[in-house]
Structures
1.
Amino acid sequence: MPSVLPTGKRVEVFYDGDCPLCMREIRMLMRKGLLHHIQFTNLAAPGFAAEEHGTTYAALMERIRGRLPDGTWIEGVDVFRELYAAVGFRRLVAISRVPGLSHLLALGYRVFAKNRLRWTGRCLPDQACAVP
C-alpha cells in the first residue's frame, strides 16, 4: 500500500489550531527543527475538510489524532509518543510506556480532551461545550 503521507514523514498530526494549550505543544514540536518527520494538519485552517481524510471533523476534535504512513489512525497518548519519537524524545517515549504510568497518562489525556474546550475558554457560560 502506498504511503498516505509525503515522502519522509513518519506521522501526520491533526491538531486544533484554535486551542491555546494545544498550540503550545505544536509550536514546541515545530521548533525542534525536524519538520520533515511530521506532517502538521490544522483543523482550524480555512478550507480544512475532514472528509478528504476519510473521517469527520467531530471525530478529529474529540481527541488528538494522527495517521501513520500506511494510513493507520492513532489517537491520544499514542500520537504524542509518535510525535516525541519523531523529534528525538525517545527516552520520554520509553518512560511513557512504563506500566501504571502509561495508564495514568492515558487517563490524564482523556480528562484533558473531554474538558479542553471549557478549560481554554471556548464554551459559552452555562451551556454545554460543543464542537463548532
2.
Amino acid sequence: MKAWQQRALQLLQWLSRIRYFKFGVVGASGTVVNMLVLYLCHNYLFDALEADLGKPYLSLVVAIAVATLNNFSWNRLWTWADRQADASEQAAPGFSQQLLKYALASWFGIGLQYVLTLWWSHFMHYMLANVLAIVVASVSNFLANDRWTFKKPRP
C-alpha cells in the first residue's frame, strides 16, 4: 500500500470515531434516500395531482418520513451504538420508545426542513431548496438526538 493510501485510511479510521462525522455520513445517506423518494413521489406516485393541489406537499411528507426512518436506524446501529445500555434496550419496547424519542427530537428539524423547502422552492428548483433545508435542519437534529434520544446512560 502506498504512503498516501495508508494516510487516507488512517484519516478515515480516525474520522469514523468522531460522532458528528458518523451523523453526517448517516445524514448524507438520508439525503440520498430523501431525494430519491421525493423525486419518485413527485414525478410518478403523485404525478396525477396538480402541483397546487398537494403534489409537492405529499411528496415531501413521504420523503421526509422514509428518510427519518432510515436515519434513525443507522444512527442507532452506528453513530450512537456505544450508548445502547444493554440487551434489554434492543427489544421491541425499547426500540419503539427510542424511535418515538428520535421522531420527537427531530420534529423541529423536520418542520424546519419542510417549511424552508416549500419557501425556498418559490425562488429556486425544489430539489436544491430541499438540500439546503436539510443542511440547516441537520444541526438541530444532531444536538437534540445527542442530548436526549441517545444520551449517555447514567453509571
3.
Amino acid sequence: MAFKLNHVHLKSPDPKETADFYVNHLGATVVAETANGGFRLDLHGLPLNVTGKIDSQTHEQVFGIEHIAIDTDDIDGTVESLKAGGARILEETQVGSGRRVCFFEGPQGVCLEVLETAS
C-alpha cells in the first residue's frame, strides 16, 4: 500500500477572503475556482482546497486546521508583510538548527509557520 499527500483542506466561512490571504501574503497561486465557490490553491507545491462547509457532506465540519509550515528566503520581509497585513503574530523564535521561525494566525485561527530557509 502506497500513500502520498493529495491536499490540505481548509474550510472557511469566507473562502475568497481565505484564499486571498494565502495568495497575497504567502505566494500561493490559484489553480482553479470550484463550482461551490471554493478555490484550489498551490502553496509552493502543497495543494490547498479552500471551501465553505459542503452541504452534501454528512460528517461534522469545522473551520480551520492545526498548522502549515512554509520556508522563506526573506524571514524579515515576510514577517513585516504579515504584520502590515494585520496577521496576529503568535511567536518569533528559533528552532534547534538556529533557523528563525515565526508562528502566526491566519484566517479562522489556522496556525501557520514561516521558517528561514536553511543555509
